[in-house]
Amino acid sequence: MGETIFTRNRSVPIFIGALALLAIGVTILSEAYGTGALSVSFTKVLGMTLCLCLAALAMDLVWGYCGILSLGHFAFFGLGGYVIGMWLMTARTEAVIRANLEGRPLPPTEVEVSEATALQIFSVVGAEDWPWMWAASDNLALSLVLILLVPGALALVFGWLAFRSRVTGVYLSILTQAMTLALSLYLFQNDTGLRGNNGLSGLQNIPGAEGIGQDRISIWFFWASALALGLAYLGAAWLVSGKFGNIVRGVRDDELRVRFLGYPVEVYKLVIFTLSAMICGVAGALYYPQAGIINPDEIAPIASIYLAVWVAIGGRGRLYGAVLGAALVSLLSTYFTSGRAPDVELGFYRIEWVDWWPVLLGLGFVLVTLFAPKGLAGLVDFVVRKDRT
Amino acid sequence: MIRSFVAAIAGALFLAVAAHKSEAQGPETGALQTILQENADLVANASRQTVQEVLDVLVASDLPEVPDFLATWNTRELYQRQSDGLFVYVEDPDADPLTLLDISTGEVVGTATSREVDQLRPNRGVQGVIAATLVQFRLTSDDPEDRLAALASIESDPEESHLALLRDLVETEEDGRVRRRAEALLPALVIAFADADEPRVEAIRSLAGNVSLSARATLNPLLSTQVRISEALPEGENIARELRPGTDALSREDAYAMLVEDGLATPLIPRRTRADTLAANIVDGAAGGVPVETLNTEEARDRAYATLVEAGQADPAPTEAEIDAALDAHVFYEVYREDSAAVTDAARATLDGIETRVAFYRFLDLSLDGLSLASIYFLAAIGLAITFGVMGVINMAHGEFIMLGAYTGYVVQSVVANETLSIAIAIPLAFAVTFAAGVAMERLVIRWLYHRPLETLLATFGISIALQQIIRLIFGALTQPLSPPDWLAGSVSLNDVVSISSIRIAIFLLGAVFFVLLWLILNRTRLGLEVRAVTQNPKMAASMGINPDRINMLTFGLGSGIAGIAGVAIGLFAQVVPDLGQNYIVQSFMTVVVGGVGNIFGTLVGAFMIGSLQKAIEFMNPSNTLAAQTYMILFVILFIQFRPRGIIALRGRAAGD
């Protein structure tokens, strides 16, 4: 008695507390429920950042704890987004179609509504029939389940294939990168049923919430993102601090020895890889309704590399490091590339941050890798006594 | 001859009178003008029936300027002066006043406003007759080039009158080139215009095995068909085949729609029409006795519509049984547009033979395509085969080295205009630039990370995005030109099916040269020996007096330098943009992994496999490169499951672990 996750992992109470404070602070400053100091778009940026933090947390689980550097995690993120996007788009378009058919002398039949909706959604790629993968798009409950199942199933199949044949290290990284590239190329095609490079759009319009302004919707999604991040953090901390966590860390440090000790290494890897993919799916499903649009570009390999880099900059194998890294780098990127940062006048040259930020970011990666292998969270070790694993 | 002599005298007399009337008219009028004045009314108001007469006179005159005159007349650029009826050309039809030119000598004969002259506008029929005469003229010209030009115009726009001309030409022609051209052209005209079946069939047979596009374009129209309907298969028509409704060739719906179109069956009632009919028959909030609010299911609408039909207020929809009966009562068949069965049979047989050959050549062409794609992949991956394959360094900036090479080529070309020379300078320079960049990167970053391979990946990724952005800042994000020399711009073609662009051949050769060179360096030189030693066991190598630092640096530089040269080659056919390298990096890694890490022979095999596979998939699913890439990557992922160490796996100590 007495030993709970809060006492075993001291970062948990601090993290949950900080997240709660952030949520309260944002609510007080929000347009919908507070002073209005934070604009709707900035609230959305914060909410999306929390989703990215959630993805980074999932990444830390596989990379920081299990040593699998996945360069394809954005595939799972994007799949989550596509699944919820299909429901959002179908429900929204159907509502619009029904409103349009209102004036007709006869009430519309289901077939008419369905055909008109399909035409509306797919005419942009020259099709008019529902592709098979949209079968669940008219059912919210099923879509919500699929947010977990679709990325999970992909991770399960891919992981089973890869771990079974003992593809490890760099080869696994390249394989995961190939996976996300294949998925994005697949989605780029117009005839595969997800509207090609048009992607799914208008996702910020939540069906059934037509009368509610974006100011309130944005803060609701922020809360949902914060809640998801908090729960995932709690769950991840619980998972890695038990026996499961120890074995997984053992796999990271010496896979062969763990295997010789009799543990089914593949099963452990598969479980954590699939779990991580599901968390990523949830993150994506929360992210894209705030972003409003998803297209195959989001799944391109470079996005997943960035995710890995965030985790590396934040510091691997300590959960809060990944979250901090993702939050810091993505917020800084937003700040510098949105043109809000003041340009630096050097007299002979004018440094415009929009242009120079990627250079700075790239060199930053190099410096962090070379001089701070533990990432920014390594700084925490200077403050806290080294009495934790 | 006598006739033209008489004509000339008559013309001269006429002109003497005309000259007398008008002071501006010079006495030295050409013979052509004379003939025209003689037939002035036929020229000015030419009609299809009468124009042949004046054309015959012109042909008979044998004057050298007649072809030009006919061409000008035909394109409606001939004018007639109103004051004296003189036929003239004008210098610039848009000028005002117009400068009038003599039709024989081209000398200026005066000026006139556009109201003082009439432009002669022969109608289509007349134009056709003139064009035919013109072809005849050109075919009998003394200059073989003229005759070739005439044949080209026949080929692009054949007419029945050409057939006889062409036959004569084949008989009499002495110039080999012209005769071959004419002989090649003859079957198409015979097939199109000959009256009897026999020469046509013979002409068709003469095309056997001819894979050129024109041969297929000649034969295909002979086999074009149209679908007809009747109660029973008719006799005496050239029927291609009978179609049964409900098969792939003719769906049940299409068949019924054809019956409806021909008025042989009652139309189906589309859902939309049914809804409109119901809406038009709403009485007291109900249509067909069914309340409107409940008409939101298909079943309810069917019921309401049936009631309307019974009441005679709507057209009945045919039942399934009626549709079947209507389909059964009729025969659907395809009939050739060509009436003669002998001709269509011969065309079918000949075309089948041609298609078989074409399929073979397609396969050959596809193999060449695959080979060329493979050499591009090989070129992009070979530098990586050294840095990643031999040294085990994951260099995500490899693509940026390719990009740097391409930009070096662009910079050289903007200084040195001559393409051949600039490429010759760019290749060693690109090697130097990327060699230096590679060495600098190895010294500054990579050598600290040899024990942490996954982190090399992150650091080099950082370098990759920084390099991309720096290039973007210097050169802008737009595509920069890097053009190949003229002698690489064309393509080599075996026939109309198989062709390959010269640049691809050059890339293939470059890839082959690289492979041989690298193989020699790695296996036959001191450096290669030391590289292999350091790769296998750095400590042991060091104790043998090899400096591992120096070897690592040189090896990495070599791999990077080769990427630079590959960049120049790739830049010649791809677009030179800052993110050029991104398109190659993932494929390059896959090439190396599939081939087998640690030896460049594996990379060669890997590139060959990936390239030919992608082309093969593209062949099965044409016009979809994206799909081909998707399936190719999926295949690679699966392939790695079964051969995790690649096609050519190193064994024993060389394997390194």
From TrEMBL, chain A:
UniProt keyword annotations, A-Z: Cell membrane, Membrane, Transmembrane, Transmembrane helix
Location(s), subcellular: Cell membrane
Membrane topology: Multi-pass membrane protein
Segments passing through the bilayer: 12-33, 45-63, 70-89, 140-163, 170-188, 217-240, 267-287, 293-312, 319-336, 356-384
GO cellular component, one term: plasma membrane
Keyword Membrane belongs to the record: yes
GO molecular function: branched-chain amino acid transmembrane transporter activity
Cited InterPro entries: ABC_transp_permease (IPR001851), ABC_transptr_urea_perm_UrtC (IPR017778), LivM-like (IPR043428)
Broad class of where this protein is predominantly found: membrane
NCBIfam families, per database record: urea_trans_UrtC
Protein name: Urea transport system permease protein
Organism: Roseivivax halotolerans
From TrEMBL, chain B:
Pfam families: BPD_transp_2
Keywords per UniProt: Amino-acid transport, Cell membrane, Membrane, Signal, Transmembrane, Transmembrane helix, Transport
Membrane topology term: Multi-pass membrane protein
Family the entry assigns: Belongs to the binding-protein-dependent transport system permease family. LivHM subfamily.
Cellular component, GO annotation: plasma membrane
Protein name: Urea transport system permease protein
Any one GO BP annotation for this protein: amino acid transport
Keyword presence, Transmembrane: yes
Molecular function terms, GO-annotated: transmembrane transporter activity
UniProt signal peptide: 1-18
Localization, UniProt: Cell membrane
TM region positions: 371-394, 401-417, 423-445, 457-478, 498-522, 553-577, 589-613, 625-642
InterPro entries cross-referenced by the UniProt entry: ABC_transp_permease, ABC_UrtB_bac, BCAA_transport_permease
Matching NCBIfam families: urea_trans_UrtB (TIGR03409)
